[in-house]
Specification:
Length: 269
């Protein structure tokens, strides 16, 4: 049985799952066929502990908690603070029963380029591996994962493809330092979604789903099947969370149909 999650609201706070209160949102998303939730902005003023408590009460998995910290700041002191904040985020995720914390290490590089032949990319990779090796025992002890997220070129000038994240995770070598596959970003950056998943399966710990236009799966022109088939082949058992806007006025209907589509495609794979 696959596990589906959804964002409760978009990054600009536009609600995704209808409902006048957070408990109502949780009830609604269950009725649409989802088992988990990822929080963007709308309900953060409730506070993480309260969000976690309400999710537990509703029997909905809070997929991700904790914000992480800036691991690739130009300022070494801020990087130390980033490592400490990331450890704190992981402890919070563990307390709330989440899978872990997502980490986008940097979007636009801040660190000065080193002297050639070393590249800025290589220097950032080196620093990150060292930091993650220090974070790993905390993640292991807490039983949660720090999940690196590659983003497309318009959002990240560092990690963009699964293979890059997998290389970093392999160098750290902890089962609790993982990366995720976001179908929207992969659709822009990967040569082949299925191959990227199969070739980098070892540390794959989480998935974001959206269609080509970042509306719900099925609302665009992305062929979702090769990616889903690859996830099935590698025995992926984690959450697939809809990180998308919803097309049309009846969001409940669209989310229900989209969740059903993912289940149908998965069964057909
Ligand atoms: C941003 O595009 C994105 O995919 C988020 O998951 C970043 O955390
Ligand atoms: Mn994402």
């Amino acid at each position: 049985m696959i596990q589906l999650g959804t964002y409760e609201s978009w990054f600009d706070a536009e609600p995704i799952v209808p409902g006048d209160s957070f408990p109502e949102v949780l009830e609604n998303l269950k009725s649409y066929g989802f088992q988990g939730i990822q929080i963007a902005a709308r309900y953060r003023d409730l506070g993480w502990e309260e969000i976690g408590r309400m999710c537990k009460e509703a029997g909905v998995r809070l997929c991700i908690a904790g914000g992480g910290g800036n691991l690739l700041s130009k300022d070494p002191d801020l990087r130390r603070q980033g490592v400490a904040a990331t450890k704190e985020g992981l402890r919070l995720a563990a307390r709330l029963g989440a899978i872990g914390t997502i980490c986008v290490p940097v979007r636009r590089p801040e660190i000065e380029p080193p002297a050639p032949p070393k590249t800025l990319y290589e220097l950032q990779e080196e620093i990150l591996i060292e930091e993650l090796a220090e974070i790993a025992p905390v993640a292991e002890e807490a039983g949660v994962s720090l999940i690196l997220e590659p983003l497309n070129r318009y959002e990240s000038q560092f990690l963009q493809r699964l293979e890059q994240a997998n290389k970093i995770c392999s160098a750290v070598g902890s089962p609790n330092i993982q990366f995720m596959a976001d179908f929207f970003h992969m659709n822009i950056e990967e040569v082949d979604l299925g191959k990227a998943i199969e070739e980098n399966k070892q540390y794959l710990g989480y998935v974001h789903l959206a269609d080509s236009n970042r509306f719900e799966p099925g609302a665009g022109h992305l062929d979702l099947k090769p990616g889903l088939a690859a996830l099935k082949r590698i025995g992926y058992k984690g959450f697939m969370t809809f990180e998308c806007k919803v097309l049309g006025k009846d969001k409940g209907k669209a989310l229900t149909e989209s969740a059903a589509l993912i289940r149908k495609l998965w069964d057909e794979c």
